[in-house]
């Protein structure tokens, strides 16, 4: 994919809409992944279900969304449901059925990790590309919460 394709994909995430607002969950998760790439925590395109990612998601939720009367902070569901977008591929474990709602325990029971493309991972390591993708996410999914 070309970089413009990633901009388009980030701009057109499959999200729920509630009370006229786009759900910010996937944007917050992707912002968290960007943060972990930037600080060197995430060193490959495989995204593990771990406490560091969960903490960064919570930190970004508090920073960008806060105490919303419309949306709740939902790390596990967001991690799983990002697979409805072409950016995010889940690595399932050997399970018979995948639930629609996830606790952190159920998420870890069903999936080992997620993966983004190597090209996207490389783009996230580039400061200019990273800043552009961050701006797209904040502009489309975060700013609209406060309009």
Please outline what is shown here.
Helices cover 51% and strands 11% of the residues.
Structure overview:
The protein is mainly alpha-helical. The protein has one domain. It is 51% helix and 11% strand. The strands form two sheets. Strands 3-5-4 form a three-stranded antiparallel sheet. It has a two-stranded antiparallel sheet with strand order 1-2. The termini are far apart. 31% of the residues are buried.
Arrangement of strands in the largest sheet: 3-5-4
Query: Strand fraction band?
Result: 5-15%
How much helicity do the residues have? Answer: 40-55%
Give the number of DSSP strands: 5
Runs in which pLDDT lies below 50 for 5 or more consecutive residues are none
What is the overall silhouette? globular
Please state the oligomeric state of the protein chains shown: single chain
Order of SSEs, N→C? HEEHEHHEHEHH
Helix/strand class: mainly alpha
How far apart lie the N and C ends?
33 Å
Report the radius of gyration as a whole number of Å: 15 Å
Biggest sheet descriptor = 3 strands, antiparallel
The average pLDDT is: 94
Number of domains: 1
Q: Determine the number of helices (DSSP H or I, runs of at least 4 residues).
A: 7
Topology (elements, then pairings):
Elements: H1 3-11, E1 17-18, E2 21-22, H2 25-38, E3 46-48, H3 51-64, H4 75-81, E4 89-92, H5 104-110, E5 111-115, H6 118-125, H7 127-142
Antiparallel strand pairs: 1-2, 3-5, 4-5
Helix pairs in contact: 1-7, 2-3, 2-7
């Amino acid at each position: 994919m070309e970089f413009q394709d990633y901009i388009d994909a980030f701009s057109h995430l499959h999200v729920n809409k509630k009370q006229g607002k786009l759900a910010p969950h996937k944007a917050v998760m992707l912002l968290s992944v960007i943060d972990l790439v930037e600080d060197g925590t995430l060193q490959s395109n495989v995204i593990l279900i771990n406490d560091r990612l969960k903490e960064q998601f919570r930190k970004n939720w508090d920073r960008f969304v806060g105490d919303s009367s419309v949306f709740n902070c939902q790390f596990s569901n967001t991690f799983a449901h990002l697979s409805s977008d072409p950016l995010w591929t889940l690595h399932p474990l050997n399970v018979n059925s995948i639930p629609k709602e996830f606790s952190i325990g159920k998420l870890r029971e069903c999936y080992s990790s997620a993966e983004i493309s190597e090209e996207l991972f490389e783009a996230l390591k580039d400061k200019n590309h990273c800043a552009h993708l961050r701006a797209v996410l904040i502009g489309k999914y975060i700013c609209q919460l406060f309009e």
